[in-house]
Amino acid sequence: MAQSSTKSLFWLASYPKSGNTWLRIVLANYLLGGDAPLAINAVRKLGYSDSEAAHYTRANGGPYDLADAQKTIALREKSLLNIVTTGPKVALIKTHNYNSTINNVALIPSAYTRGAIYVARHPGDVALSFASHYGLSIDETIARMAEPRAVVGGSKGAALQFTSDWSSHVQSWAASKAFKVSVIRYEDMHDAPKKVFGSVLKHMGVAVDADKLDRAIAHSKFDELQKQEQTEAFSENTAHQPQFFRSGTAGGWRDNLSKAQIDALTKTHGKIMKALGYL
Question: DSSP for 39-98?
Fold first, then answer.
């Protein structure tokens, strides 16, 4: 590949289980697809994941303990610079890292960043999906969503990602001054997909073809993704759940969380929930 410009990284960011995968599947069907739906695992062709172990082992000159937080932070900039110097002019990067600095290392270095899309989701629905994906109870998940030093990953080919707590994660991206971030809500992706995904393409600097976008959205519907997953295991699934594409609905927290659980989320994250229109 041709060497990229310095500011080549375009982030597709979210707190875990907020709709990042669905966003990337729609984009893959728009940018890479045709008359038939892309295979679900073709989403890996769209860009990169910043947690891929290969980036860090290359930066380290060999394997290391992916759960080593200090080592991962120390290798962070070099791992991203490898993408900048060897990747395309615009490299789409999936991340669950929050936009902050640890040990004087920027997790999302503005010097290499072109822009970002940030997917936000109601924390109640995040809790339901996160618990299923990681094999935790709802209460354990809610506690984890309030933990400032929370991480995910660190095994099975993925380096640690530093998520912090849900509110800090959202705010770190939404309040960015160093580069432009377009914040979209998972719920709006459901309710007004053409409008939302069209705005995503515009923010990325990609021309919007209405017919092509309609087709990409149709090819990315959850019934299609679920049908494919029945015959092809999805690479981003875990051993904790029978399928990755569970329901694809919004608002399930209303029927599946207790009042105490809803109150706990609201008490901890009420300020950001209100800013996002959830309260």
Answer: PGGGGGGS-EETTBHHHHHHHHTS---TT-HHHHHHHHHHHHHHHHHHS-SSEEEEE---
